[in-house]
Amino acid sequence: MKNKIRKLDKLLKYNKSFVEGKKYEKYETSKDPDKKIVILSCMDTRLTDLLPKSMNLKNGDAKIIKNAGATIMHPFGSIMRSIIVAIYEFEVDEVLIVGHYGCGMCNLNTEDLLNKILQRGIPAETVTTLSNAGINILKFLHGFESVEESIQDSVSLVKNHPLVPKEIIVHGLVMCPETGKIDVVVDGYK
């Protein structure tokens, strides 16, 4: 990496001028979400600015969690843990699960993904070891067949979770990653 500009170095150089120029001041807020909502969204880069702007959210309005596909894979995994913490520690009373059309996790070719993993140098023995430990790597990497069904499944998981109070409202939404238009899949008020 002698002549290659390292990404971290560029980020830190910008960060230094950001702090010295006090550009952070316009983002100052508390850790508590003003609108008392938590959003689980896909990690798709097109949603980074588009999602909050399309919902009229500013810094400090919501807790935003991102992962591949905006899916909750395990009822006691880190995503659900974050939602539960938001409910009890930050008084969140509404949860929004926001997927998007054209998601890369929809119909993801897990065999192809596994081949990429192996091509990048992860030994086949590692996959075998995981399999022998009871981990189905293809199931672990699998996405979903329908963004709407995936959103419905995640909404149901949150709504029916034993640690989530019954009065918590859970919505399921799908966004167009080009325009920001939001379609309601599950209206939590109904």
From TrEMBL:
Listed InterPro entries: Carbonic_anhydrase, Carbonic_anhydrase_sf
Enzyme class, broadest EC rank: lyase
Pfam families: Pro_CA
Gene3D superfamilies reported in the protein's UniProt record: Carbonic anhydrase (3.40.1050.10)
Name of this protein: carbonic anhydrase
SMART domains, alphabetized: Pro_CA
Reactions that this protein is recorded to catalyse: hydrogencarbonate + H(+) = CO2 + H2O
Origin species: Romboutsia sedimentorum
Alphabetical keyword list: Metal-binding, Zinc
Family designation: Belongs to the beta-class carbonic anhydrase family.
EC number: 4.2.1.1
Cofactor(s) for this UniProt protein: Zn(2+)
